[in-house]
Design a protein that fits this description.
mainly alpha
């Protein structure tokens, strides 16, 4: 649904948004109302309070819900299928063992984070996290220490790549709107993302993982036969696979091939799309359009599921058993998908209410340095409506005229993109669908997610901004 003309001023809309968030937290934390029900209820009340016409409220609700489900449901569904196949056949254990053998138990979180930084180059946050879940769970069960010790560095790595590095949509759109050089954004974005991850994620995750102990949830991937708790989780080993008990697990090369396949396909999409945009390849080239199609993230993951079935089934399970395995993988994620969609509904209602337009009009003349202004505006928009991409693009559009008037260099414009990305990263909370994805996959309640994921996203955003500000000073 398109944004309506704001009925109230920015101050009133901000109060409505703040009251909606407070009510949502009260319903979930204090009254223990199911998150899906609470999100839909608060979205409805917010739409009414913000003055969205009654006839348009259903569209406002369903637009945000369906838009989020359209991007999340297929990715999560296919992703957990791949993860379940790897977990069932022992492939996740093989990869975990190999990583630990190379890096050692002490550096397991670092190994997972570095791997996620590499995989996060072409893969979006939610898709990358889902693909890595069985590896995170396996390592956490083997060495103990709770899921956050391993999950936060990995999720943070995907988050920083999604926020800062092209070809992810936020930085690409921001660079384009500000008149920047996307190639330079990519070249500078990689070292900035790595530095911000070390400063704002790696060390912070070590502290948060030690302070907040969250046992590895069994809902998405059940325990594997022969697994080991090391005293980390309660209960006994059960569930898991029939394959690993009697058949040799797949080779490391096979597991790596399955995990790299979506990376390669999505990378081909990115490269070919860029060349088409640049005019190097004709738009009607059949081979190019074919590569673009199979490199779309849902299609790439679908093909990965088929390859995983072919590569892992031989001598381990029949197609009838494969159907049962895939069915088992989908059941536990229904709640996750619905809650994530409802989070998108809440953010969509806030956007449809016109809060973005009202804020941009009131913040356009702040009279502060442009780098700080970019960070501050993106932060306000991020907190108000939830979507990092919307905060990125809206802020870039707002300051684009000022950037053009000042005649900044390509390097300075690129640093402005990073400042906007920093503001669009901080303070992930209940109106952000990513918040619910992390919360449910890692088995955290809302209060714990606020104390961990929200804090981690904030330190990550601040680290991105500090690096951008330092480079701004150095470049003169």
């Amino acid at each position: 649904m398109t944004e309506i003309e704001p009925v109230y001023g920015a101050g009133t809309l901000l109060l409505i948004a703040a009251a909606a968030v407070a009510l949502l937290l009260f319903l979930i934390i204090r009254l223990k109302l199911h998150a899906f029900v609470a999100l839909v209820l608060v979205s409805l009340l917010t739409a009414v309070a913000a003055g969205i016409p009654v006839a348009d409220i259903p569209d406002a609700l369903l637009s945000g819900f369906s838009g989020t489900l359209g991007s999340v449901a297929l990715l999560v569904g296919f992703g957990v299928m791949v993860g379940r196949l790897l977990e069932t056949t022992g492939g996740a254990q093989v990869l975990a063992d190999t990583l630990i053998a190379r890096f050692g138990e002490k550096h397991a979180p670092l190994a997972l984070g570095v791997a996620a930084l590499i995989f996060g180059f072409p893969i979006f946050f939610d898709a990358g996290l889902v693909v890595f879940l069985p590896i995170i769970f396996t390592v956490a069960r083997r060495f103990g220490g709770g899921i956050l010790r391993y999950g936060l560095p990995t999720a943070g790595a995907f988050a920083v790549m999604h926020a800062v590095v092209p070809p992810h949509p936020g930085p690409v759109a921001a660079a384009d709107l500000l008149g920047g050089n996307i190639g330079l954004t990519l070249l500078l974005g990689v070292p900035v993302a790595i530095g911000a991850w070390f400063l704002g994620v790696h060390y912070v995750a070590r502290y948060l993982g030690a302070r907040y102990r969250v046992d590895v949830p069994d809902a998405v991937f059940g325990r594997m036969n022969g697994g080991r708790d090391d005293g980390a989780e309660g209960g006994t080993d059960g569930g898991g696979s029939t394959a690993t008990a009697t058949q040799a697990p797949p080779r490391f090369g096979t597991v790596l091939l399955i995990l790299l396949l979506p990376l390669v396909l999505i990378s081909l999409n990115t490269v070919v799309s860029t060349l088409i945009t640049a005019g190097t390849i004709a738009e009607d080239a059949v081979w190019a359009n074919t590569l673009t199609l199979i490199g779309q993230t849902p299609i790439a993951l679908l093909l990965t599921v088929l390859v995983a079935l072919a590569a892992l089934s031989r001598g381990r399970f029949s197609m009838a058993q494969a159907t049962s395995i895939l069915d088992d993988s989908l059941g536990p994620i229904c709640s996750i998908i619905l809650i994530t969609g409802a989070g998108g509904m809440f953010g969509g209602v806030l956007r449809a209410s016109g809060i973005g337009s009202a804020l941009t009009e009131s913040l356009s003349g702040l009279g502060i340095p442009i780098l700080l202004q970019a960070f501050f505006i993106a932060t306000v928009l991020r907190v108000a409506q939830g979507s990092a991409t919307v905060a990125l693009t809206t802020t870039a559009g707002l300051i684009s005229a000022q950037v053009a008037a000042e005649g900044l260099s390509d390097v300075k414009i690129t640093l402005l993109v990073f400042a906007v990305a920093a503001g669009a990263t901080v303070l992930s909370h209940v109106n952000d669908s990513g918040f619910w994805l992390v919360s449910r996959f890692f088995g955290m309640d809302v209060k714990t997610t606020l104390k961990t994921w929200t804090v981690l996203e904030t330190t990550l955003g601040v680290a991105i901004f500090l690096i951008a500000a330092l480079l701004w000073l150095v470049t003169g």
